Amino acid sequence: MRRPGDSLRASSVSRSFEGVHALRDVTLELGRAEITGLIGPNGAGKSTLVNVLSGFDRPTSGTVELEGRDVTRWSPSRRGRHGLSRTFQHSHAFRSLSVRENLEVAALGVGTVAREARRRAAELLETLGLTSQAEALAGTLAQGDERRLGVARALATRPRFILLDEPAAGLPEAEVPDFAQAVRDVRDDHDAGVLLIDHNMALIMGLCDRIYVLDQGRVLAEGTPDEIRANLDVAAAYLGESAVHDADDEG
Fold first, then answer.
1. Residue 250 confidence (pLDDT) above 70
2. Cα–Cα dist 48/15, whole Å
3. What's the rounded Cα separation, in Å, for the pair 139 and 43?
């Protein structure tokens, strides 16, 4: 049984926007030192859930707990100081600062002293394959490097939990294996829990210990990659009922 201090947890979270239910009674738990996937069709509520978990949005009902504390009404910055970090689908980097400076500023923002911030930045440049881009302005980066910078900035805060919102989008296929290893290193070397949201199913299935599937704002399924692959409800959500029935008839 996982102790409360070992997890980030959403309990019975719902979120409505002018009568539209983006999330419906969602419960999700992310443990330390594990990679948990979050997948679902477009419009399933994935980004809304990440915003609720990270404090950029508040649920209509339900709670968010970080290491046993109710943080439902905490700001994003307060959650950050207590070990929760995230990336965004669109870059939030300081475009007029260098890649190295972006990492140092992120570390300083959670109270890291200057010398440690510089050391942390150098370490992350190496880990994320950004050393050759260290002095480049963030605003000049190619999309793949921009994604890696987003992950590095999140890691610069030394999070215990990190939410990666489509971090592989825009990465050349040849670079995905190295990126996948960098995510494994986050779990293995930093003892951090990783919530990975991505449309690259090979990446999700190859990396994740457990996977949650959202559909129309609800948790449709939760399980290991093998269990999710075998789940006909998940296949129906992605491919449509008729495709699943056709495949079943052929089998």
1. no
2. 8
3. 29
Q: Which residues of 60-74 are buried (b: 16+ CB within 10 A; e: fewer)?
A: eebebbbbeeebbeb
Greatest Cα pair distance in the chain: 64
pLDDT in tens, 46-59: 999 999 999 999 99
Measured CA to CA in angstroms, residue 67 lies from 64, 70, 154, 175 at distances of 10, 9, 19, 34
Q: Fold for domain 1-83+161-172+184-251?
A: Rossmann fold (3.40.50)
Q: Where are the beta strands (DSSP E) in 18-56?
A: 20-31, 35-39
Spatial distance between the Cα atoms of 126 and 128, rounded to a whole number of angstroms? 6
Q: Rounded distance, CA 66 to CA 247, Å?
A: 42
> How much is the pTM?
0.84
Is residue 244 predicted with pLDDT exceeding 60?
Answer: no
Burial class (CB in 10 A: 0-12, 13-18, 19+), 136: middle
Query: Residue holding tokens 């949650």?
Result: 212
Question: Which residue spans within the chain are E strands per DSSP?
Answer: 7-17, 20-31, 35-39, 61-66, 69-70, 84-86, 161-165, 193-197, 210-215, 218-223
Residue 62 Cα distances to 26, 58, 231, angstroms: 8, 9, 27
Residues of the chain with CATH 3.40.50.300: 1-83+161-172+184-251
Cβ atoms of residues 8 and 159 within 8 Å? no
Token pair of 179 as six digits: 């990126």
